[in-house]
Amino acid sequence: MGAVILYGTETGTGELVADAIADVLAADHDPAVYDMAEYAVEDLDAGDFLVVICSTYGEGELPSSALPFADELDEIKPDLTGLRFAVFGMGDTVYGDTYNRGGEIMAAKLSDLGAVQVGEHFRHDASSAVKPAKAAEEWAEALPALIAQG
Ligand SMILES: Cc1cc2nc3c(=O)[nH]c(=O)nc-3n(C[C@H](O)[C@H](O)[C@H](O)COP(=O)(O)O)c2cc1C
Questions:
Q1: Which atom belonging to ligand 1 lies closest to the Cα atom of 132?
Q2: CATH assignment of the domain containing 111
Q3: From the CB of 130, is ligand 1 less than 6 Å away?
Q4: Alpha carbon 54 to chain centroid, angstroms
Q5: What is the pLDDT of residues 79-110, one digit of tens each?
Q6: Which of 92, 124, 134 to mutate to test the pocket of ligand 1 (most atoms within 8 A of CB)?
Q7: Stretch 136-145: mean pLDDT, rounded?
Q8: Does the C-beta of 89 come closer than 6 Å to ligand 1?
Q9: Does 8 contact ligand 1 (Cβ within 6 A)?
């Protein structure tokens, strides 16, 4: 099963995270990495495993590169039955109540359309000492086993 890695970012950290996850999956899952801004909802395929990386901006909102994809999901409302996905969310605990909302918003949108979230929903904290790409590399070690279940 191939992996499609989609990232939503404002200032580029999400792309670094996506590349780190792609490196982990490269051996067995032929990962394809896309900015959400450059990925069409019509291309979602239940034959792929989806990895969603998404930061948080504004007051608990999606980052700008995730907005067109999120809007398309709302408008087209594709049936995502059979699609499995995992989420690596990004945020900063200094924002309190809106901490890591971006990844949670994307997870809810995909789930509402019939997709199934699997594995640990990771929430990276930009205030922590752990670098996002390093955290992503460790988190991604669990993905091959999840992908193999499909
Ligand atoms: C103006 C601004 C607003 C932000 N708002 C939030 C927020 O509401 N909640 C949160 O958890 N993180 C928030 N963040 C933190 C970012 O999500 C975090 O730094 C993330 O690692 C950035 O990833 P990116 O470079 O891929 O966009 C905000 C950051 C900035 C600069």
A1: 21
A2: 3.40.50.360
A3: no
A4: 5
A5: 999 999 999 999 999 999 999 999 999 999 99
A6: 92
A7: 97
A8: no
A9: no
For residue 148, give both structure tokens. 């193999």
Contact predicate 102/62, CB 8 Å: yes
| 128 Cβ below 6 A of ligand 1 | no
DSSP 61: B
Q: Ligand 1 atom closest to Cα of 100? A: 11
Contact 63, 55 (CB under 8 A): yes
Q: Check: CB of residue 86 under 8 Å from CB of residue 103.
A: no
Domain range for 41: 2-148
Q: Give start and end residues of each alpha helix (H) in the chain.
A: 13-29, 67-76, 101-112, 132-140, 143-148
Residue with tokens 């700008």: 64
- Nearest protein CA to atom 31 of ligand 1, as residue: 57
The total domain count for the chain is 1
Q: What is the DSSP letter of 57?
A: B
Whole-structure pTM value: 0.98
Residue-wise pLDDT for 8-62, tens only, equals 999 999 999 999 999 999 988 899 999 999 999 999 999 999 999 999 999 999 9
55 CA to centre of ligand 1 in angstroms = 6
**How far is it, in rounded angstroms, from Cα 74 to Cα 76?**
6
